[in-house]
Amino acid sequence: MPLFDLPLAQLIDYRPDVAEPADFDEFWSGTLAEARTHTTSVDVAEVDSGLTHVDVFDVTFPGFAGHPIKAWYARPAGVADDLPIVVNYIGYSGGRGLPHEQSLLPSAGYAYLKMDTRGQGYSGNGGDTPDPVGSDPAASGYLTRGIADPAHYYYRRVFTDAARAVDAARTLPGVDPDRVIVSGGSQGGGIATAAAALVPDVAGAMIDVPFLQYFRRAVEITASLPYAEITNYLAVHRPAVDRVWETLSYFDGVNLAKRAQAPALYSVALMDPVCPPSTVYAAYNAYGTGTGVPAAVSKQIEVYGYNGHEGGAGFQVAAQLRWLADLLR
């Protein structure tokens, strides 16, 4: 894939004016307040992962509307200390996978919570969380489910699940509740952005090649899925254009990133047709700049100039381990 987006010199200062609804904060504060009225306990059960150096637990916690959301909780075996925890969100179509796959961060000395994404989990080693909510007609995939109304949009449920995952992580045995870091790549990066905005006292955010950022530009410059789901929907539902963009403005990563306060490590790939670099930079440059956010939120971005959506892969994992050690030292 060749370079197709703005040159890096322009991306560094790219700050587009992304539409934001007047009731954005009220929408999200009301959503979270309702979700937190569901006080179902967080269930934690140890599983036999076959690993000797990592303990793994099957977790169920209440998400949007109290719906049960699955996760894996993993931590170094034999360690009794309250540890920092990384809450991880999953890329599009993925699920939480299998217990023995959750060992990397515990091997580095951290606790780890991997949240299942409701209704997905149809790739990799699968997921276990259904989405009990239906929707109006939609294009294939998840991006247009409930897109006619922000109250019914799919990602309202997912982003609320993500915030509630942070709440749940803070109650887990052996976790330091003041040292919760959110993380994810692609869709997971978009969800992590939302979590950092909706729970602004998290300790950090690791956001890789994020999806769900500056929807309108992404749809206009890339034909790649999943953004093409929106294109396909609008090609059929011609009168719905304005309503669709209004709905998406409540979920745009640029608007959410403004409200984040935690230190952040981003990554971007300049040949990425799935999550175009200008959409990543739009969110990165907005991160921590909103009204009322303390000045000088710490952030940095790793740039992979000749990579597509795979981004930095293992090189970015190494960068994250260094960044985490510095952050939590």
UniProtKB/TrEMBL annotation:
Coiled coil location: none
UniProt EC number: 3.1.1.41
Keyword Iron: no
Leading EC class: hydrolase
Highest rank taxon of the organism: Bacteria
Keyword Hydrolase annotated: yes
UniProt-annotated catalytic positions: 186, 272, 309
All copies of domain Acetyl xylan esterase, residue ranges: 1-326
Signal peptide as annotated in the record: none
Keywords from the named record: Hydrolase
GO biological process: polysaccharide metabolic process
Pfam families: AXE1
GO molecular function per UniProt: cephalosporin-C deacetylase activity
SUPFAM superfamilies tied to this protein: alpha/beta-Hydrolases (SSF53474)
Binding positions for substrate per the UniProt entry: 92
PANTHER family the UniProt entry points to: CEPHALOSPORIN-C DEACETYLASE
Name the UniProt record assigns to this protein: Cephalosporin-C deacetylase
Organism from which the protein derives: Occultella aeris
